[in-house]
Amino acid sequence: MIVNPNADASAYSFLSLGDSYTIGESVSANYRWSVQLADMLRKDGEDVGEPDIIARTGWTTAELQNAIKTSGNQKTYDLVSLLIGVNNQYRGQSQDQYRIEFRELLQTAIKFAGDRAAHVFVLSTPDWGVSPYAAGQNKINIAQDIDQFNTIAKDECHKVSIAYIDITPLSRSAAGDDSQFASDGLHYSGKQMKLWAEKALPVVKALLKK
User: Fold this and answer.
1) What does the pLDDT read at residue 6?
2) Which tens digit of pLDDT belongs to each residue from 74-128?
3) 96 near 136, Cβ under 8 Å?
4) Helix 139-159 and helix 95-112, axial crossing angle in degrees, nearest 10
5) CA 73 to CA 7: how far, in whole Å?
6) Per-residue pLDDT tens digits for 45-62
7) pLDDT of 193 strictly over 60
8) What was the pLDDT predicted at 5?
9) How far apart are CA 91 and CA 34, in angstroms?
10) What is the distance of C-alpha 27 from the center of its chain?
């Protein structure tokens, strides 16, 4: 867990939950999508602090939920983001299991937001099949799997009126462009994550008004 010691000095607090895509595996901290988003919000006049982050490379939905429980974090936040699912897909876990665990994580996120579902937003899972790391793998199957997991996430968000932001097409647009991938050839670079933050920006600005 990464906690910003100066968060309380800002008008709006921000918690970002997830896996490698949230922690920004293989990129510097300032390139994390949620950190870039907070910076964009400040530039647009919204006094948003640097995000607290509960995320780790490799985490599935169940592992994220367990980490949240063991973190002991009892704070509430003005904004809570969730991006989780790629490792469920990568490990071949069932979509039914994902639905149950993702639904539980949405309720956890709502609790962190002070029981305000309108202050929670979800980003879709990017498609790792377009990465250099995936060369030689069945990219069509990976894409289909990712789409199915994302359909579940979108459906569960709709049920509880949580904003869902589809960044998967942006991730697929990175295919063939090494500058949009981190040095490990699997995760995305700050350049690609900036696109995610830009797409989230108008949605999140609207959430702050609710």
Assistant:
1) 43
2) 999 999 999 999 999 999 999 999 999 999 999 999 999 999 999 999 999 999 9
3) no
4) 40
5) 14
6) 999 999 999 999 999 999
7) yes
8) 42
9) 25
10) 15
Q: Identity (one letter) of the amino acid at 140?
A: I
127: nearest Cα among 59, 62, 82, 181? 181
**Which tens digits make up the pLDDT trace of 139-168?**
999 999 999 999 999 999 999 999 999 999
Backbone angles phi, psi at 101, to 5 degrees: -75, -35
Tokens, residue 52:
């607290």
Phi, psi for 132 (deg, rounded to 5): -55, -30
Residues 110, 48: Cα–Cα separation, whole Å? 19
Cα distances from 88 to residues 14, 60, 94, 126, in angstroms, run 25, 5, 8, 13
As a whole number of angstroms, the distance between CA 210 and CA 201 comes to 15
Chain centroid offset of residue 135 CA: 24
Give the pLDDT of residue 1: 52
Q: Tell me, yes or no, if the pTM score tops 0.85.
A: yes
The tokens describing 109, both together, are 């996120």
